[in-house]
Each structure stands twice: as C-alpha cells, then as structure tokens.
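Please, structure for the following, as tokens.
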Amino acid sequence: MLSSSSSKPSTQQLLQSADLISQGAEAAIYKAYLRQVSTSGLSTGHGAVLEALDPVLLKYRFHKHYRHPSLDASLTRQRIAGEARALMRCMRSGVTVPGIRMVDVNEGVLGIEWIDGKSVRQLLPGGAELEDISELEEAGEMDEIHENGAADQIADYGVSRDALMDMIGVEIAKMHLADIIHGDLTTSNMMLRKQTNDLVLIDFGLAYHSTLVEDKAVDLYVLERAFASTHPDSEPLFAGVLSAYEKRMRKHWLPIKKRLDDVRLRGRKRSMVG
C-alpha cells in the first residue's frame, strides 16, 4: 500500500484512498471516487467545497523492478497513452466504451468511467468465474441460478441472448471500421450496463490502430476461441455475433471473412502439430 505524504503527487493520493479490485502481472485495478473543488458557494471552513462525483475505475500500471527504470517509465507512458488514444478514437467513431476521466502517464494511471453491470462472460452459460460462484453460494443464490439458467440473468437486463450477440457484433464492427484492433477480445472484456442495457467494450490495454484485414480477422478469431473455450455449445452464439458484424461491415466483410477462414485453417494446423 502506498504511504501517505503531503508532498506525494495527487494521483498517488487518489490510489491510496481507492479500493483494490484486482491485480495482474501488468496492472492493478482500483475503484475510486474523484472529487472536484468548487470555488463558489459556501466553503467548508478550509476555503473549498468538495463535491463527490461518480465512481471511476483506475488502471494503475505499477513499476516493474525487473526493468531498467528509464525503460519502464517509457513503456508505461506509451501504454497508458496508447490505451487512452484507442478509447478516444472509439468514442469519436460511436463505439460504446467507458469514458475517460483522467490520464496521468507519468504515474502510469488511467481513470475511466465505472461501468455498473456484468461481463458477458458472467451472463452466458459456463462463464461464471469461481469468485462469483463463491459469492452466490454464500448468498444462497446458486439454486436459483441452476434452476433458471443464464438466460434469465440476461433477461434481467431486458435483452435476449440473440439481441446480446447482435450488440457484440455491432460494437466490434464499429470498432473495426474505425481501424481499431482490440487485441484481447473475450467475453470478459465486454460488459452489459444496468442502467441503459447497452454493451460496453472494455480493457483496451493491447489495442492498436491498423487498417489490415489480417488484424481484424485475428481479432475475430481470438473472440471465437474465447467463446469455444469458455461457453459450451458456443457455435450458434458466435454465429449470431458474425451475422450482426457482417451486416454492419457491409462491403468490408467479404475480405475479412476470407482472411478469417485462413486464420482458422492456420489455427487448426497448429493444433494438429501441437
């Protein structure tokens, strides 16, 4: 945990006050609350009025001690800036992604809109993660999940499974038409928002700009493999995604389809060779 200090940068102070959600090899995820100082109205007696804002998600790319400090700092700045650029380009192109709330490339922190909802992985059959299962068991809700199935979880959001697959295909198509490659398309990196029931693409840490048909086909192939490995009987699900993607891509679909078939063939050959 970061120590408190009045001389410490405000970004680190924000991290200290935040709640750690998860931590991986490259970054830690926090939930925090940004506050703004109002210069008008009544003060608190200390010269400022604090107004609480909505929660934000902080992605903190912490220092890697195994890398040279200057190299680590350079890579961190590049990755934070690259993810922010990808999100901005998606937003300008109408892709539903979290809004950017703050960027601190020197401290390695990207603050984005907190999405209140569930990942598509949690909503589809076979995708509930162990942590979620434990929480449901403790709450006594596992029997209800087994009885009603994942379809009822999706229905709670006011959409059908087919409609959800359509939304996934449309959002990926809008992203590819903007020449943004996600780089890690899985059902864990898509969320269904509670308030508006719209699909939000998240985690653009591996995203990059590319006009190549190959890169877009590989993006789709990664998602197809994610469906197959995480959700049973996923062929109809992914077929629904591709159907909506095709409609949105229009004339751009045929070359991507041909390349996707090639990528699948290469994948099968690698599996056979081992």
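The chain has ten helices and ten strands. The longest strand covers residues 49-60.
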